[in-house]
Queue: 2 jobs
Job 1
Amino acid sequence: MKDPLDTAYLETLLGYNARRAALTIIARFMERMAPFDLRPVDFSVLSLIRHNPGVTSRQLCNELNILPPNMVVFLKTFEKRQLIQRKPHPTDGRATGLSLTAEGETLMQAAEACAMQSDLSVVERLSAAEQKTLTRLLKKIYQTDSV
Amino acid sequence: MKDPLDTAYLETLLGYNARRAALTIIARFMERMAPFDLRPVDFSVLSLIRHNPGVTSRQLCNELNILPPNMVVFLKTFEKRQLIQRKPHPTDGRATGLSLTAEGETLMQAAEACAMQSDLSVVERLSAAEQKTLTRLLKKIYQTDSV
DNA sequence: TATTGTTATACTCTATAACTATA
DNA sequence: TATAGTTATAGAGTATAACAATA
């Protein structure tokens, strides 16, 4: 019973490599983000709200591929934690504009700095040029896909 | 209500880009693999069995980060589909050696060819050099992590 | 005592149907 | 009629506890 399995074939597959790399990056992210009690999806939602004050729930859903019923739960939790506030939308009576509270702003400022550090810790063995290249190629994958 | 949200910050994060790229690749993979009725995890398990005949359930779990109780369900399904067979392990009475049936071999031969085509369709806008670089950098991410 | 494989079950995440209020 | 937000719920995916058989 040889324990180091032959994974040579799987390693030729882009999907296998991309998934394992993404899992590595996300695992590191979760470790570091634990003190903030933010999962990756929480971070993404709150960061989008931070950089798009007044954004609606539906816009967040479209951008992050989250279904509206699930977003409701996230936003409810953020509101209980007093990280976000809701204001009536200026022109659309159905919608609600979301923004960070002062508390949310303080948290996300620290969390975004933490996220950057997390990234750096993962790619520290890549040269600066390799890091730029990796980001560029990853973007090329998902941006050219929707064409 | 501006619909194209400002995602500039998120796009600076490696995790965000890696996750989106991985989702793109996996979505394409699932589309193409649908005729074989194989999810990514099914493909990974069957491919490992194919290239490691006699492998045990526990070894597959270790390699793919799948918990034993969940693997039981997968293997049960494969057995019902007559894709794999179980033989008593030659030296360990507790364990079972797994291998593909002729039917499984036929299926996986086609599925692996399909997987390669799926990859190619995703990276077709990358030059050959870029493709090699991307794979190399992705491996560097998850292989250097465990050091 | 530790490990393989297994059952049963709990928990989390994601998806669907249907409703209300407004456009 | 279509859309934003919501509720309730179903389903898929993942995790924990405990067991029998073997090492």
Note: Helices of chain B lie at 14-33, 40-51, 57-64, 68-80, 102-122, 128-145.
Job 2
Amino acid sequence: MSRLTSDFYKQDAVTVAEKLLGKTLVRALDDGTISQYTITETEAYLGEEDLACHASKGRTPRTEVMYGEGGHIYVYLIYGMYWMLNIVTGTVNHPEAVLIRGLDKIIGSGKVGRKLSIDKSFYGENITASSRIWINEAPDVLNITKASRIGIDYAGEEWKDKPWRFILTENEPK
DNA sequence: TGCACGATCTCG
DNA sequence: GAGATCGTGCAT
């Protein structure tokens, strides 16, 4: 299994969000422990126009990394206690990102950040070169459910209902 | 310089 | 159904 390269992350956020399903997220802790998780749920945030995307407020120290090239990590603290793990996608000056909402046996973006020991030190980390977090290639999956994004009612009618949440569903027995 | 709020979760 | 808890953006 090989690590996904920067070309993969240069695609648009919606495409990357969908393709990340089934891929393997690898986390190497400081103590040497290596854990692998299958990505099961993602959400796409696409550009300044997307009122649900943090970059809709423009370029700030916090959103800066999203304006860079895809393949870097965007983390931020929400509700004062949860670190959200995002992967920047797209090209330079296109602020896009994919939120990792769920992994195998870990459902919920807040729990993902806690379980993987994510904090602000991961801000801007290059996920194609990091030695503590990366994503491995895996075959594309077919059972994908699309849904609207969570917790963004403030984004207005046009954006809050976009089907940009992707969920990997279990194979139904035949 | 202050304030209201958020891409959440847990407990009661 | 409410509290925990704090960085950020915008108002003052």
Note: Chain A has one domain: 6-168.
